[in-house]
Design a protein that fits this description.
4% of the residues lie in helices and 46% in strands. It has 368 residues and is mainly beta. This is DUF1513 domain-containing protein.
Length: 368
């Protein structure tokens, strides 16, 4: 669906309606130490992954196809320097272990027959293995694979609890939470969504040792796809949603965020007067920072945030707002032409020029 980017004037008007005034555009604050950001991007028709630093041309590795998540790997006796794992966008067919500082590919791994990546991974508790979301190309079944962090080879696999598993995370208790987006994609049909009328999105909690399903959670609206996850310190889970309703008007009023608190999964609905400008039902990324959940809207051009209770809506305007990353009190959002770096919940960010927009996700490595 083609979506026009909102104008600066319309977004400022929306911010004023929400009581945010011109601060939503972010008056420049006192300088914050610039970050190093691990991300992916497109340059022409070529996909890349690597490091972005303010004022410098991104340095990275050329990829055979677009990347999605980039996962920082823990150091060890075998890995004393910074390394990262690059996961192909779904339905993905490669993994890459890379040295982002030198912009060097260290190890490529082609996916096994009839196995396709869902674009995300999570480290195991001991840091020796990692879990990936995958799809069985023959049956369409969602899978979780555990892989060796050195060889990238698959050690075992078990069902994800649904179709189209996307983001996942390891909970402090050692269980896995998996967002089964409910949408089937296969390489022979590319990004075509094969089962929209039958989609069944859910959030599944799995025993990471046995693979057993411990709990499943669903929203009442079956057209809401649960996609990306962020965990608050109190255990509340924020889930970014992407609406797949056949009618535009349903997508334009659909929620951007759901919360899992205890055993209750619920949407955070807009008040009638609060639906932000140009909203089309597509939340790109989510993170937790400064005591709040932040969800980006790339097509609409803003970032929205809520408390862990799902109230206190705030809007920060940034055309093309997509990738989010947080590190302590700092959090960052990348847009079409700018990246905004915030300290805490201040409305005044440090603004950096972005000549090559980032792809879906980013991770802050350190501050220079």
């Amino acid at each position: 669906m083609a979506t026009e980017h909102p104008t600066r004037r319309s977004l400022l008007a929306q911010a004023a309606l929400l009581g945010l005034g011109a601060s939503a555009w972010g008056r420049e604050a006192a300088p914050i130490a610039p970050p190093r950001v691990l991300t992916a991007w497109m340059r022409g028709e070529q996909s890349w992954a690597g490091l972005w630093t303010p004022g410098q041309t991104p340095r990275g590795v050329a990829l055979p196809a677009r990347a999605h998540q980039l996962l920082v790997l823990p150091t060890s006796a075998q890995r004393q320097q910074l390394q990262a794992l690059v996961l192909a966008r779904r339905p993905g067919e490669y993994l890459l272990r890379m040295d982002p500082v030198r912009g060097k590919a260290l190890q490529w791994h082609t996916m096994e027959d009839d196995r396709y990546l869902g674009g995300h991974a999570a480290l195991s508790a001991n840091g020796k293995t990692f879990f990936t979301t995958e799809t069985d190309g023959e049956s369409g079944q969602g899978l979780i694979a555990e892989r060796d962090i050195h060889t990238l080879e698959k050690l075992r696999e078990f069902p994800s609890g649904g179709i189209g598993p996307h983001a996942l995370l390891l909970e402090p208790a050692g269980t896995l939470l998996v967002a089964n987006g409910g949408i089937l994609n296969l390489p022979e049909t590319g990004r075509r969504k094969l089962n929209i009328g039958r989609m069944d999105s859910n959030l599944t909690r799995l025993d990471a040792q046995s693979g057993q399903v411990m709990a499943q959670y669903r929203l009442s609206d079956s057209y809401l796809s649960l996609r990306h996850l962020a965990l608050a310190p109190d255990g509340t889970l924020g889930i970014a949603l992407q609406a797949e309703h056949p009618q535009n008007q349903d997508r334009q009023t659909s929620p951007a965020l759901a919360l899992l608190q205890g055993d209750t999964l619920r949407t955070v609905d807009w008040a009638a007067s609060q639906v932000p400008s140009a909203w089309d039902g597509y939340a790109g990324d989510v993170c937790f920072a400064a005591g709040r959940f932040w969800a980006s809207a790339p097509h609409a051009g803003w970032v929205a945030s809520w408390s862990v209770q799902g109230d206190g809506l705030q809007i920060r305007v940034l055309p093309g707002a997509g990738a989010l990353a947080s590190a302590g009190e700092r959090w960052l959002v990348g847009g079409d032409e700018s990246a905004l770096l915030y300290r805490g919940n201040t409305p005044q960010p440090q603004r950096y020029s972005v000549t090559t927009p980032w792809d879906n996700h980013a991770a802050m490595l350190s501050f220079t």
